TrEMBL record, chains A, B:
Residues 1-25 are annotated as: Disordered. The chain crosses the membrane at residues 31-50, 70-91, 103-129, 153-171. This is CASP-like protein. It holds the Pfam family CASP_dom. It comes from Fraxinus pennsylvanica. Homodimer and heterodimers. It is a multi-pass membrane protein.
Amino acid sequence: MDGKRMRDNSQIEKGPTEDERGSSTMRTAETLLRILPMALCVVALVIMLKDSQTNEFGSLYYSDIGAFRYLVHASGICAGYSLLSAIAAAIPKQLTMSRAWTFFVLDQLLTYIILAAGAISTEVVYLAYKGDATITWSQTCGSFGGFCRRATASIAITFIVTLCYAGLTLISSYRLFSKYDAPVAYTNRGVEITTFHS
Amino acid sequence: MDGKRMRDNSQIEKGPTEDERGSSTMRTAETLLRILPMALCVVALVIMLKDSQTNEFGSLYYSDIGAFRYLVHASGICAGYSLLSAIAAAIPKQLTMSRAWTFFVLDQLLTYIILAAGAISTEVVYLAYKGDATITWSQTCGSFGGFCRRATASIAITFIVTLCYAGLTLISSYRLFSKYDAPVAYTNRGVEITTFHS
């Protein structure tokens, strides 16, 4: 009962209940949106790590292709960061400016890293399927169909991770920049403002 | 004289001069940061479009490689968007919520498009230089050195454009989200707030 009263008092001091509840919902959503890419990254990583094929044409391992090695590293980094940031996001504590900036910068960076990994692996798989006659690159997937299909699955998951990260970028941008005041000439609160420029 | 007095009056109504000046500086910076990638995109586009080499091994055009065709399209789209958005950013008018969202979403999208173009073209040039013995892809740059060098130059410029866009993303995020109020549990203004969670 005492705890309840304390809570009520604190709400009077700090604002309406809806906002607090909205913030708590947002934190839960953010934590889930960070756990999801972690799980997906691990799946993409495992599929790619196990991707090898041996037949009458020879053996092919994921590590024979630079883009796939990069994808494995990027997925690993992304899974690690997602776990750490999910823990950090789940802990209810005051978000300082430096914490908000760290989240923002790292989320952006990881989005770029994982997008690049997906993009270059897609290009390699595309070339492996289609080949390129002019520069005499063979259609490797003709001989290693299973290898290419597993690689494609891993890449598809990587793109889902990229979408999750694009969403997280939105959240961390909101977290960071809603702490700043709007620039005066662009403010949209209250009455319309006419600006005069010399 | 009358115009000057009007300007002074308007400042009293809407806030301190520093903020207005800061906002105007920001608009100039944004406009320049939008014109720069436009120029760079055009340069990258022209270098890539003119990239062809004919020698005793045969002829090689940029259009023989899917990744380079994508880079040309991406640079074209990016140049067009940069021009339009520079004009839109230069015009001093009230930034509505929908305008801020449009800038934010398009800046993010273009960043991803141009980053992907740079990444996949880098992968192709890397493969063309190094080859891949396991999947029997030849070192094309051994025969077409000039072609590869021009392609590399175009890609390098594309990455500078990506950096410009990363900066623009920062500005458009700030523009958009500084219009929102900070979530209550995360607010950093005024006294420290203790939250109670049930």
